[in-house]
């Protein structure tokens, strides 16, 4: 568990900020440092073209930075941002708030918050960070270490980016990105009983101008016990709209991913014990993938797609896990690679022109395959020992089932409808 962070700038370096300010006569510049006891720092840089703020605090301190850029043209001094805020805090009970608004051009705002609740030599808790950014190309970085920490980021504008890295117990990370074109969120958490929430929306109907693959992107990695994560991505009609990459290691984790729009991509990796996840996609041309590694034990997962031309796939190499795949719509494809031991999996498709494939190996695994509709096809390949599968097709027209068996396997086939092959 991470308990200490190395500050990215020393107090001595920040103390020399007055000389730096003299070199930027057209920039509102503030350099504040305090240590010992408790203090409140307020920095207000509004009404100019650019704002630059550095705050360092040791002890139970709070800091609030407000920056706005009223200029109409490109940044004349900063090549990367119109507003820059950097806050570093060491000690329990610290609070940092950054509120930035800027020009419509990119990039506009940059915020960095580094908080070490444990202080220099001990443990600590109760640190909060809050960032609010408006207009284009926002960037927020938050790094926290300790217990009972909270990080909240609210971004509105094009091409916003948020990074949150936390280590400790009872951590909370929340990101809300309401972008006209793109949002990028990266959350990394280590420890126990941590929670992460990301909400992204893309309201622009045109193509992504910054990302060639996705308009909204989320990466969430949680290591430890009792972790929870919820990801909500709302996209537009373009492809690809949303991308979610998630991974949970540890025990008793819970993950929920909800994507709407077209061309969504979701990838879930589970390497823990008794974790659970629920993935739901709504729209067309969606892709979902889940991997249960051989380190996973007792995982319970569900993957659901509502729409057309969807693709769902999973690889199960775990033990004592259960997994369900559901597709509702036409021209969908579903693939499951079932290995490991004592796993139970269900595959269900509702609609026409769907394809379902199961490769069942390992030992003592159980699978259910169900199709309901017209012109569907399913295939099963079985190897290993003690595996069993139940196949059911309900529909008419050119329904097909292809079964290949090697070894002592069990297959039960039920078909209802006409012109079955």
- Spans of at least 5 consecutive residues whose pLDDT stays below 50 are 1-25
Pairing-aware structural class of the strands and helices? mainly beta
Give a quick account of the main beta sheet: strands, pairing sense, barrel closure.
16 strands, parallel
Beta content comes to over 45%
| Arithmetic mean of pLDDT | 82
Shape: elongated
What is the count of helical runs?
2
Helix content: under 10%
* Total beta strand runs: 32
The largest beta-sheet arranges its strands as 1-3-5-7-9-11-13-15-17-19-21-23-25-27-29-31
Distance between the termini: 58 Å
Radius of gyration: 26 Å
Furnish the topology, listing elements before pairings:
Elements: H1 11-15, H2 17-22, E1 28-35, E2 40-48, E3 51-58, E4 62-69, E5 83-90, E6 95-101, E7 109-116, E8 128-134, E9 139-145, E10 150-156, E11 160-169, E12 172-179, E13 183-192, E14 195-202, E15 216-223, E16 228-234, E17 242-249, E18 254-260, E19 265-270, E20 276-282, E21 287-292, E22 300-306, E23 311-316, E24 322-328, E25 333-338, E26 344-350, E27 355-360, E28 366-372, E29 377-382, E30 388-394, E31 400-405, E32 410-416
Parallel strand pairs: 1-3, 2-4, 3-5, 4-6, 5-7, 6-8, 7-9, 8-10, 9-11, 10-12, 11-13, 12-14, 13-15, 14-16, 15-17, 16-18, 17-19, 18-20, 19-21, 20-22, 21-23, 22-24, 23-25, 24-26, 25-27, 26-28, 27-29, 28-30, 29-31, 30-32
Main traits of this protein?
mainly beta; 2 helices; 16-stranded parallel sheet; disordered N terminus; 3% helix; single chain
Notes on the structure:
The protein has a domain at 286-421. The relative contact order is 0.06. It is elongated. The protein contains 2 helices and 32 strands. It is mainly beta and 421 residues long. It has helices at residues 11-15, 17-22; strands at 28-35, 40-48, 51-58, 62-69, 83-90, 95-101, 109-116, 128-134, 139-145, 150-156, 160-169, 172-179, 183-192, 195-202, 216-223, 228-234, 242-249, 254-260, 265-270, 276-282, 287-292, 300-306, 311-316, 322-328, 333-338, 344-350, 355-360, 366-372, 377-382, 388-394, 400-405, 410-416. The termini are far apart. The strands form 2 sheets. The chain has a 16-stranded parallel sheet with strand order 1-3-5-7-9-11-13-15-17-19-21-23-25-27-29-31. Strands 2-4-6-8-10-12-14-16-18-20-22-24-26-28-30-32 form a 16-stranded parallel sheet, with no helix packed on it.
